[in-house]
Amino acid sequence: MRVAIGDLDFPAAQQTAEEIGSATIAVELDVCNRSSVRRFLDVTEERLGPLDALVNNAGIMHLGRLVDEDDASTRRQVDINVHGVLHGMKEALPRMAARGRGHVVNMASTAGRGGFAGAATYSGTKHFVMGASEAARFELRGSGVELSCILPVVVQTELAAGVSKARFVDHLEPEDVADAVVRTLRAPRFEVFVPSHMKGLMTFATLLPRRARDGLARAMKADAVFTNPDGAARRDYEQRAARSEPGLREVSRPPDIGG
What is the residue range of 103's domain? Predict the structure, then answer.
């Protein structure tokens, strides 16, 4: 595939594109600004050809009790995790449907199938991604366009810095999620858990009465993954995420950048 990377941090996107090579390009992108998303896709199609796949991966996570979360943190998560995904779908799906082919992959989370203490707003945004994606999938029936959601457990990136582990569930490497995306593009499925055995566990949990489900979460320490993070380990990430002020500026059309 010919790949375009869109990111608010344009220098980081450029560096990654250069590392990948193979005519990969970088384009400045603010997912909270729909016109920016449209420009990103326009530039991508102008330089690389018709859009075959879009991976909606942008997201942030602030940790802490819901009652202690400031409104600015809440808005940032909703704007990036919810509106960013919606803008991607609204701009990409019509292009794909017009050609009768294409695949949108939305990055959800196992938090989209259960609420996690210490990450209430984040969990809510991922529930939204799942619900909106499922509805859009029904609307796309017969169009030739695929829509999928990836549901990883905790991934060892900055977003999950300083969080603890649940019992019997190891943290993932970013490559594990990337591999799942590639497999899904090759063999489309709507709901893709990473690791795959989480599908059986989550399905089993939903069949249990509420009290038993809560007991299972406590036994696995899944209810405590985000409740007591290492503040020092998360400080740099939280500060950087707080600077992701969505929708405050228009991103200008970028110049041509060599891959």
Answer: 52-242
